[in-house]
Amino acid sequence: MTTYDFAIVGAGIAGASLAAELSGHGARVLVMEAEDRPGYHSTGRSAAFWEECYGGPEIVPLTLASGPYLKEHGFLSARGALYIAREGEESGLDEFMDTFGETGVTIERLGRAGLERQIEGIRSGWSGAIWEPACADIDVAGLHAHYLSMAKRNGVDLVCRARLGNAERRGGTWTLQTEAGEQFRAKVLINAAGAWADEVAAIAGAKPMGIQPLRRTVVQLRVEPAPPSDLPLVLDMEGSFYFKPESGRLWLSPHDEEPSDPCDAAPEELAVAEAIDRLEKVVDWKIVAVERKWAGLRSFAPDRCPVYGFDGQCEGFAWFAGQGGYGIQTAPAAARLTSQLLLGLERDAMTASLDASLYSPARRG
Q1: Sign of the alpha-carbon torsion through 219, 223, 229, 235
Q2: Residue 207 DSSP label
Q3: What is the pLDDT of residues 173-231, one digit of tens each?
Q4: What is the pLDDT of residues 33-76, one digit of tens each?
Q5: Residue 355: exposure state from Cβ atoms within 10 A (0-12, 13-18, ≥19)
Q6: How many CA atoms lie within 13 A of 357 on its CB side?
Q7: By three-state DSSP, how is residue 47 classified?
Q8: Which of 5, 75, 316, 347 has the fewest CB atoms within 10 Å distance of its CB?
């Protein structure tokens, strides 16, 4: 039986990108995916944008470090983003500028006139915004396929319908058994299981990080007038909605974060109704039809920072999880940094400015 250097649990954007990076240095890598195909859960349900401020100041360095790679390989399309605020919420705009002003992002304060230029039909009562011109749409499917293809070229073995059922470590090697009875061997087991990350940790005998899946709902609407193709991503300063155009339709989310067990997430009608109600308070567009609705799980550690690197308490076990809703936009830098941590490599130009301690499993205590 082959003994792999690394076995990665999960073939979403996390597992695929890390497999590509590790195998690029000659490591023998196995990726175990529980579903019939990679990217079935969160990766395949992303709202698909790269937004410099998304996730907070601790995530900004990963996002900025990933931007050049995403642009160079053609995965970004210009969009722009507006964080909008109601009358009386101007202090929130001030706090936003103070929070992100020294992080390296590009942001600008706009007043009512600026809002009207950006969003036709915006209702009265919305007084200002933060304009982020660098925000872009991400070709999520293309990026995921890019990493899967790179991994395949590097000799990575991807096994689907291989849900981990048992993991035992003896003599420096893991014996991994799927629920269907297949067995594999690896020196290091990497947890890139998204919403199932704490379950995988428990199977391996590692202490869970407290990673909680949160359901996020998105609905596709047909509206009149149709949203212009150059409409920016629009987010509420208080975090109660966002919307963006997509192929002549509008993608809208109530920005919900409903705790959930790991599952094949489905949208709830209440969340859809809340999203529509919030949109109607922003613009005077007519909602013609609800054409699609879906939900995905965004998984967070208690401090909402991702978890990268060796566990420290469980020998041969590593984490690449807890990436919330920004795992795709940070994938290049996150996978590069984690591969360097696991292989003991020096940093390169992409990762030189990143503080790995922010994301270390050691912060669990």
Answers
A1: negative
A2: P
A3: 999 999 999 999 999 999 999 999 999 999 999 999 999 999 999 999 999 999 999 99
A4: 999 989 876 665 676 789 999 999 999 999 999 999 999 999 99
A5: exposed
A6: 0
A7: coil
A8: 347
What amino acid is encoded at 262 in this protein?
P
- Between CA 208 and CA 199 the distance in angstroms is 8
The H-or-E segment that residue 188 falls in is strand 183-191
- Residue 168 and residue 187: Cα distance in Å, rounded? 11
Average pLDDT in the 151-173 region?
A: 97
Rounded to an integer, what is the distance from CA 43 to the centroid of its chain?
A: 8
Maximum alpha-carbon separation in the chain: 68
Q: Strand 212-224 to strand 286-300: parallel, antiparallel, or no bridges (unpaired)? A: antiparallel
Scored b (16 or more CB within 10 A) or e, 281-301 reads: ebbebeeeeeeebebbbbbbb
What tokens were used for 107? 């942001």
For residue range 11-33, list pLDDT tens digits in order: 999 999 999 999 999 999 999 99
Nearest of 267, 333, 265, 339 to residue 299 by alpha carbon:
265
59-78 exposure pattern, b = at least 16 Cβ within 10 A, e = fewer: bbbbbbbbbebbeeeebbee
Supply the DSSP string of 223-247, one letter for each residue: EESPPPTTPPEEEETTSS-EEEEET
Phi-psi region of 157 (alpha: psi -120 to 50; beta: other; left: phi over 0): beta
CA within 13 Å, CB half, 346: 2
Contact 290, 219 (CB under 8 A): yes
Q: Cα-atom radius of gyration of the chain, to the nearest Å?
A: 21
Quick one: angle between helices 13-23 and 140-153, nearest 10?
A: 30
